[in-house]
């Protein structure tokens, strides 16, 4: 761990052609190592110069790794620039890309930008699943408001999307943290209406509010 300079020396030897040649996996690993050490400029140099100069084409996995690493360094402008670059290179974003971006924007305090990204890019793309939904719900819960999270959850169901039990649990947990017992029960009713059954995590969350006997009496 932390031996990025040693790894870069090995990478340099590989680039001479005297040893086994690097591939996109090697290059992705190098960039991840650099980003983990806060060396964003060097990682972007690999992406923007080394990779094209050597005839490689980054995959969606490569772009996702770089975008994720940049967001972790709170370099959201650079991360979104790489996302734009990805599209121009003809590499389609996947659900993981969108989950990373939504999470990154929310963590860096850009909830409104995340909302616009959802409205303008993710939803029209048709490429979204429970992982993307849960990333957005977590962001709204932590950095937006419970009302925003509830509205988004209900909006998904109304639009015909299928949030899973994990998505519902995120919002139920926030209701529990806020002491909103009635709202938690309403969300459980809503999830059942949409074909999702409470799981063990749901019940553990609700134990924070009241015991199982109360739940049974209330028909939850």
Supply the key terms.
220 residues; mainly alpha; Serine Threonine Protein Phosphatase 5, Tetratricopeptide repeat; 2 domains; 73% helix; 0% strand
Q: Would you summarize the structure shown here?
A:
73% of the residues lie in helices and 0% in strands.
Record the SSE blueprint:
Layout: H1 4-15, H2 24-36, H3 40-53, H4 60-72, H5 76-88, H6 95-107, H7 111-125, H8 130-143, H9 146-158, H10 165-177, H11 181-193, H12 200-206, H13 212-218
Helix pairs in contact: 1-2, 2-3, 2-4, 4-5, 4-6, 6-7, 6-8, 8-9, 8-10, 9-10, 10-11, 10-12
The CATH class of the largest domain is identified as Mainly Alpha
Radius of gyration: 21 Å
Based on the structure given, which CATH architecture of the largest domain is correct? Answer: Alpha Horseshoe
Q: What fraction of the residues are assigned to beta strands by DSSP?
A: under 5%
Count of individual beta strands: 0
**Overall 3D form:** elongated
Domain count, please report it.
Answer: 2
Order of helices and strands: HHHHHHHHHHHHH
Largest sheet: none
Q: Give the number of helices.
A: 13
